[in-house]
Amino acid sequence: VQLMESGGGLVQAGGSLRLSCAASGDTISISAMGWYRQAPGKERELVADISSGGSTYYADSVKGRFTISGNNAGYTVYLQMNSLKAEDTAVYYCAARGIATMTYDYWGQGTQVTVSS
Question: Distances in Å between the alpha carbon of 8 and those of 21, 53, 77, 92, 103?
Answer without folding.
Answer: 11, 27, 14, 8, 25
